[in-house]
Every structure is written in structure tokens, then in C-alpha cells.
Amino acid sequence: MAVCVAVIAKENYPLYIRSTPTENELKFHYMVHTSLDVVDEKISAMGKALVDQRELYLGLLYPTEDYKVYGYVTNSKVKFVMVVDSSNTALRDNEIRSMFRKLHNSYTDVMCNPFYNPGDRIQSRFVSLGRAFDNMVTSMMIQVC
Amino acid sequence: MADAVLFEFLHTEMVAELWAHDPDPGPGGQNMNLSVLESMGFRVGQALGERLPREMLAFREELDVLKFLCKDLWLAAFQKQMDSLRTNHQGTYVLQDNSFPLLLPMAAGLQYLEEAPKFLAFTCGLLRGALCTLGIESVVTASVAALPGCKFQVVIQNS
């Protein structure tokens, strides 16, 4: 299960960031921030390589001793970053991919909500604007500690 | 096939409603109405630009994005593809549709030529919104030579 999930806009500011162990949140914010460099590197590498197909899923960005960071970029250059616990070795690539797919679907739903202005933070203050998105992220993050 | 006609009716009502309050608003009012339609199309285009390319692989260059507009976006919105796409390779693209579904019910030929821009403003916004989500700033204008064919000109803004 994910420990931290972040959605970053095209201009590299966070639209949504949430982590489970709520103490030490800053550490995760910092980790997501540093992973943006790796994401940019992968995107520009894909552009230069003469590969026929470009994938949206970026894979493992970098591992640390406690955590692994995965990335995914959409066609609209919105990046999703997920931090998972290293000790949870049962998580396979397919599961990470499906978690990103769910995240992408929920993000698309938020985008299609007429009360959402593109570029705003995704908050669940307004009744159901970000609530569904929040719930979906929660379902991906349970069972930690 | 009833879904296509639902959007056409809605669109016709939108245009009619904006012009109903003041049938002859003068150039200022006219532009205001056209801007309102265009910005509505823009927001819809932004959402479509997020939803439609979801299962597709990443776009590699500008031309891929334009091709996506001509094929997938047009197919989703109007159940047909764009008839032709031309470019001068310097940031200007002309998308031509020889029988645009929103103009089809009106007339074939030169009748209603002055009224046609009202019915194209929303679609211009749609194109601009989709391009904006996909990372391209542009200015989209439309021109009609003879109904129901029309051309959309997309000029990419490079900063």
C-alpha cells in the first residue's frame, strides 16, 4: 500500500499531496520534490530516444533504504508520484500500474467536474468535489503501521 | 445515434439563448456573446483533453496532438473525422471540415453566411481548450466560405 500520493501540475506545483504517517510529513514532501527531477529526466530521455511508443507509466524512479518512489505522467503533463514502503515486497509492477490507472481515472473525473477550475488544489472542502478523489486515495493507503 | 442530435439541439439552444435577450446587440455585444460561447467551449475542451487521450500513449510532437484533434476529438464530439489538415510547418494549422455537423441542418450554400460565426465559436473554444490541456497555447479562429463546410485555423503561440 502506498505511503504517500502526490499529484503535480504541469508547472510543477502540487495539486494534491497526502501521506499516511502524519508525523514527518515534510520528509515525504521533500522526497516528492526531489523525484520531480528524475521525472523530468525520464520525460526528456523519452523525447530524444527514437522509440516508437511512449508509455505513460515511468516505473521506479529511485529507491531509498526505506521507500521506493514510482512515477506516472499523463498526456497533459500532470505527474503522479507514489511512495511505497520498501518492506512491502509483495507489491508487484502490475499492482502499481493499476493503482496509477485508478488515480488517473479519478483525476479525470475531478477535471470533468464543472465546479473545479483547472489549476486549483484538489480539496474535499466543497461537498463532493475532491471527496471522491480523497476516498480513492485513502483506499490505496490503508494498512500502514 | 440519438446522442449526436442531443448535443446539436443543446448547442442551438445555447446560441439562441445568448441572442434572445437582444437580437441586435451591436458589435460590442456581439463580441461579448461570442466570447462567452468560446470560453464555454474552452472549459469543455480542457476536460475532453484530459479524458480522451487516457488510454493512448504519450504524444511525441505537436503534429501528433493535431492529428489527435482531427481524429479522436472530432470523432468523439461529432461522430466523424476532420476532412483535411494542412500546415505550414511554422506553427499554423488549417483544419477543414467539408460538412460540419453543427452547420449541416442550416443550409447548403451561401445562405446564412453572416450567422455562421455564432455557431462556430463554441467549437473554436473546444479546440483551444483541448490544446491547452495538452500543453499547447494557441489562438483558434474559424471561417466559412460556403455552408456546411468550414475551416478552423490554429496558430500556435510560441513564447
Automatic annotation (TrEMBL), chain A:
Family indicated by similarity: Belongs to the TRAPP small subunits family. Sedlin subfamily.
Keyword list, A-Z: Cytoplasm, Endoplasmic reticulum, ER-Golgi transport, Golgi apparatus, Transport
One Pfam family named in its UniProt record: Sedlin_N
Signal peptide residue numbers: none
Major subcellular site: cytoplasm
GO cellular component assignments: endoplasmic reticulum; Golgi apparatus; perinuclear region of cytoplasm
Protein's gene: TRAPPC2L
Location of the protein in the cell: Cytoplasm, Perinuclear region; Endoplasmic reticulum; Golgi apparatus
Any GO BP: endoplasmic reticulum to Golgi vesicle-mediated transport
The keyword Chloroplast appears for this protein: no
The protein, known as: Trafficking protein particle complex subunit 2-like protein
Domain of life, source organism: Eukaryota
Keyword Nucleus recorded: no
TrEMBL record, chain B:
Gene Ontology process terms (BP): endoplasmic reticulum to Golgi vesicle-mediated transport
GO CC terms of this entry: cis-Golgi network; endoplasmic reticulum; trans-Golgi network; TRAPP complex
Primary localization class, coarse: endoplasmic reticulum
InterPro entries on file: NO_sig/Golgi_transp_ligand-bd (IPR024096), TRAPP_component (IPR007194), TRAPPC6/Trs33 (IPR037992)
Domain of life: Eukaryota
Keyword terms, alphabetized: Endoplasmic reticulum, ER-Golgi transport, Golgi apparatus, Phosphoprotein, Transport
Localisation: Endoplasmic reticulum; Golgi apparatus, cis-Golgi network
Family assignment from sequence similarity: Belongs to the TRAPP small subunits family. BET3 subfamily.
Complex and partners: Part of the multisubunit transport protein particle (TRAPP) complex. Heterodimer with TRAPPC3. The heterodimer TRAPPC3-TRAPPC6A interacts with TRAPPC2L. Interacts with TRAPPC2L.
Function: May play a role in vesicular transport during the biogenesis of melanosomes.
Descriptive protein name: Trafficking protein particle complex subunit 6A
Organism per entry: Sapajus apella (Brown-capped capuchin)
Taxonomic lineage from the root: Eukaryota, Metazoa, Chordata, Craniata, Vertebrata
